[in-house]
Amino acid sequence: MQELTTTRHNLHIDPSMSVWGWEIPVYLFLGGMVAGMMLISGYFLFSKRYKETNCACYTLPIISLILLSLGMFALFLDLEHKLFVWRLYTTFKISSPMSWGAWILLLVYPVIIANLLMGPPQFLVNKFPKVNNLTNYIHKHPRLIQNIGVANMLLGGLLGVYTGVLLSTMGSRPLWNTSILWVLFLVSGLSTAAAFVHMIAKNVKERELLAKADNGFLTIEIFVIALMLIGLLTSTQVHINAAMLLINGSYAPVFWVFVVGMGIIIPLIIQLLAVNHKIKHTPIAPIMVILGGLILRFVIVSAGQYSHWLNAHSH
Amino acid sequence: MARFGMVIDTKKCVGCMDCVVACKTENNVPEGYNRDWIVTVANGKFPDVHLEIQSQRCNHCDNTPCVSCCPTGASHVEDFGKIVLVEHNMCIGCKACVAACPYDARFINPEGYADKCTFCIHRVEKGELPACVSVCPTHCMYFGDLDDPNSEVNKLLASRKNHPLMPEAGTSPRIFYLT
Fold first, then answer.
1. pTM
2. Listed residue (B114, B100, B71) closest to A170, CA to CA
């Protein structure tokens, strides 16, 4: 037996780490969802299906801008030295995912705005009538629309991937230290974005299409979670301990009930019945998917901080 | 260029916490926080029990996850002695370095920046020893250049059984405990 006692009790460090509160999970969730929205809209723009996918290509950009700005505000709230936030943009650190993220976020905005200009909201047109000129210009150039689609897919992909890499590069936190985490966050982002379109789209065809896509994403997500846990369980003792936090440890109830059960399996069943016309489409399923995505980020951020190598609270 | 490290003799350490108090006083460490601390490790099963007292702090690792994750360059390896430091007015308080340290050696200073042991660089630059080393009543702590084969720390490491903390975390820590 080995027992450790320590005289250290630093705030938010001991007895277990909790330096990241609600702000980071909320940001990771919103960032992931916006990434999914950019990928979905970008795909329809690129494949020239934007006339049938009104909601994805014309409504998502403005929603993406709002959600991303809310997410970045949460990120700002998390900073402890807020007045120095500009330091992010005086340098680029190639080894720091957070530095990559800061610059990716800066590039994401113009790309979403380019998509937004294809069908600008009425209040924008009223205020700046010249926006219509840009809209007309874009619609006269189908190749440009495809390029906007490619740019949205590229930056959306980078945004979704980075939210996972941000955590997975931390070898100090065994639960995060799995290279499949970015796949999980990306698929979850795609799934929540598809669920959002499924929930708000007025066009029946589009709603049906996104519900089917979401079923695909949710199915993949189940496999990614399984593979992540298998990867951790077949690694070192600290990684096994980290996986057990989710499997039967203190985070297990919320993980199995809210993330896997109510966030993936139950909405998947409802949506499978809906797309096969056994029941009517209901907004309950996509709401569950979106909440599941949010809770997934909370569980991973919180349990990841709790997971550790060897500390005073381990034995 | 030197590469400073520390050697701590657990056969001499009595866990008196003088090093902890000296650090707090020397560096004005805010109330409720510690840059160094004492860990007591009890090993074995009665009657074969082994007790080791360790004075712990930032390990000033050779492979520094806290530096590589820093988005602004505030967390850096100083040329002088390869000491790992935080430039306060470059730190945005994102806490990535705090989470990246497997030793949980960092914390957020109430003023908002990431804080940790500096090996008392302000003293070492003047040729003095870090505060914790200089006050130790049992003289169990040694500070010196790990790149100099003739330094006291290297001689101790060559002649005594020793171990760093959690080398398996892969950070190549530079504080060694003589056993």
1. 0.95
2. B100
Q: Which helix (H) or strand (E) holds A5?
A: strand A2-6
Q: What is the pLDDT along chain A (315 residues), one digit of tens a residue?
A: 778 889 999 999 999 999 999 999 999 999 999 999 999 999 999 999 988 888 888 999 999 999 999 999 999 999 999 999 999 999 999 999 999 999 999 999 999 999 999 999 999 999 999 999 999 999 999 999 999 999 999 999 999 999 999 999 999 999 999 999 999 999 999 999 999 999 999 999 999 999 999 999 999 999 999 999 999 999 999 999 999 999 999 999 999 999 999 999 999 999 999 999 999 999 999 999 999 999 999 999 999 999 998 754 443
Question: Residue B120 and residue A263: Cα distance in Å, rounded?
Answer: 50
Residue type at B43? N
Residues of A in contact with B40 (CB under 8 A): 4-6
Q: Which of residues 173-232 of A touch B (CB under 8 A)?
A: 173
Q: Nearest C-alpha of chain B: how many angstroms from A183?
A: 20
Give yes or no for a cis peptide into B47 (omega within 30° of 0): yes
Phi-psi region of A151 (alpha: psi -120 to 50; beta: other; left: phi over 0): alpha
Predicted interface score ipTM higher than 0.90? yes
What single string gives the DSSP state of each residue in A94-147? TT-HHHHHHHHHHHHHHHHHHHHTTS--HHHHHH-TTHHHHHHHHHH-HHHHHH
